[in-house]
Amino acid sequence: METTRRQFLTRSLAAGCSLAASPLVAPVAIASAPWENRLVVVILRGGMDGLGVVQPWGDPDFATLRAGSGMRERGQPGGPVELGDYYAMHSALAPLLPLWQAGELGFVNAVSTPYRNRRSHFDGQDLLEAGLADFGPGIRDGWLNRMLQAVPGIEAETAYTIGASGMLLTKGEAPVAEWSPQAVLAMSPQARRLMEEVMHDDPLFRDVLAEALTLSDSGGYAAMMQSGGMDGSPDDMLGGMAAVRQSAQLARDNAGAEHVARFAADRLRGDARIAAFSINGWDTHARQDAALRGPLEQLAQMILTLRDGLGPVWAKTGVIAMTEFGRTARINGTGGTDHGTGGTMVLAGGALRGGVVHGDWPGLTEAALYQGRDLMPTSDVRAQAAAVMQGLFGLPRDVLERTVFPGLDMGGAGRLVL
Amino acid sequence: MSYSPRRAEVRFGCGLSPAVVPAGDAAAFLARLKQPDEAARRFPVETFDEFRVRIAEQREMMAEAKATGTRNKAAKDARRARRDARLDEQRWMAQALLRRATTRDGFRERLTAFWADHFTVVGKGGLLRFGELPYVEQSIRPHVAGRFGDMLKAVATAPMMLRYLDQERSTGPNSAFAARHPGAGVNENLAREMLELHTLGVDGGYSQTDVSELALLLAGLSVDAEEGFTFRARVTEPGAQRVLGVSYGSDGPGSLEEVHAALDDLARHPATAAHLARKLAVHFVGDEPDAGLVAAMASAYRDSDGALMPVYAAMLAHPAAWSGAGNVKAPVDYMGSALRALSVGALPVRQADKLAVLLSQPLELMGQPWMYPEGPDGWPERDEDWITPQGLAGRLQWALNVPQVLVEVLPDPRGFLSVALPDPAPEALRFAAGAAETRAEGIALILASPAFQRM
After folding, report:
1. Which range is the signal sequence, renumbered to this chain (chain A) (predicted)?
2. Nearest-CA distance from A375 to chain B in Å?
3. Does B261 touch chain A (CB under 8 A)?
């Protein structure tokens, strides 16, 4: 039977080893990161339609397969942005054209995890983040965490997971800090001390509180809260309402891909070397071209914010965005696409080899499609991610093929790092 | 371990209230489910059929505007309708929390939330964005003490679900309709989630062929111009479809009866019994429930042909349902139980900005934006999914600031301990409640304590 992520996580908790245990119980020491390059991993949840994002207009079957998606032709106003003769990218990515031209944006086509045929988002994401070939041995941790486990000298501030919910990608024994720039935690010193006492005997609450306090302190938000918040007149109704409004405003200000990216850039400019988060909304079952616009705008905004926020560090940064599966090659009965197989990986950053659509193109004839419906995968997305980590961090191939992605053959990977 | 009145209210109900006496035994606890729905009467929420009148009206206005060339006025009306619906959504959220805060039948509220999550929908576009709770009120709540198959059929014909999972325009490729509309085709989203999430479960032993065949069978379930359910025989796939080894339909166009027959069979499937039993146990008892408990519940489901009351009774009767530290409350459970312990009987339901700041924005920060989960698999169940640094920060910030706004005079923290907690407070908490500098901090410490945050 498959061991799902939930079973694994609860088992480890029952055994008394909380996943959140210990990384930040002590105040964060300045991490002496073992390398200079930065890696940002973005999980695109919902199954991104590679064919709608990097459109292969040079393929003779493309236009026919995509009739009814609402997509405009090349050269039309509001149409896709040319990337050479063969490909054009969705117009929502137009703000990234200068990066493409500078060689700081690229794509890998026809990639997939080894997940086949059942096409469930949740299983697909679990396998993508676990980095395993199948569910056989059971999911214990995420591949990004296993990569950190393989490297000596990792400290809590080396890696960050950012956003409202934790990710399997970074779960595991290596310390990874999790935080959302929306969170705010302000209380009087006495309340804080008592809060720690009250949570002390429940390991989950104790460890997460310690982490929250450390992160909140380092964010500088607590001071802002306390200036007009409940410390002034704690039992006064107006004081309470003011504090509530203030924290709500702060949370609103800090929501969205842009703030997540800014928070990540702030950390990566300092001691952090790895950041991971998700962008949702790729499950485009209807009105394909229009439905892709929102999430693509988020993706573009995220990449631009990282570039601007990282400044000179952008040159040492690789951003990879990957999804659980691609979508059907044909447009479905509702102008959208259903869950498929082969998809597209997005690359950005000064350290990666952009200005190129990497990957072997399998073609779109009926015979070339996987099961006559999906883009045929021609490489393992794990091999591409491994190639990026090998190039950025100099990790040995056998560590990548045995520990980070057990059983992987990196032979099919492209040359993705400069 | 066995039934304990106070633990029952915390683990299976909405928490403890100084104003409500817990049911003395499991039979009395369950019997409340068979009594009239008092909470819904006191704190009403529109049904979907009531809600969709707004959508029909808006369409009429738009059509009239087109005909008379008064588009500006129409746009204004549309904006007003949208604002009204958004305000009502906030108001219904407050009503739902007040049901939790005041009800004698907390189990009904928890079950409604559980099954609404099992059959997650998120409104797609326009006014539907605000239709989730009306959907729950109409298609879920009346069935929580009935038969699962009836709930499944209600959901499969609910416009919110048909739109959420892209069923409403799915067309049999060989249907009369498709013959004249090239490009029309089948969409298998609902069929897949129905097998994977709603009935058999991902390990339930179905294949891609079963998904495809079920999708063909479901073609016809659709939504009419007034956002009501309709069955379109013209778009059904001719011939029989074979799902999990059973054939449905004959040579002619499909019918709603065939769909119902298939849904009844899916509801009756032993894998469905196992999937639902485990999911209920995970939700109410713990992230890794006792195998014997799950087996007893699944067996009750099979023996009663999918009636839910015997499943709940089997859960409450099993010793394993009463052991363990208990799940961490999800944010809505957390907030509801805090309001209940604080005896909050009214909320500023007419002041949307206040509701946003006091309730909906904090829920979002705790990781559970109201009625807006990320996908059709609904909210997570694991303790670690909720107790993250930012999720915990959201809870603490709410506990520190909001109770004093909602309650005229906060109770003495030392007395509040025995109101809010099912068992005697741990020593450290008793000390902290007395040592806090202010009442607000004392109450916050109790609401923040693991003893209160767990069920």
Report:
1. 1-26
2. 17
3. no
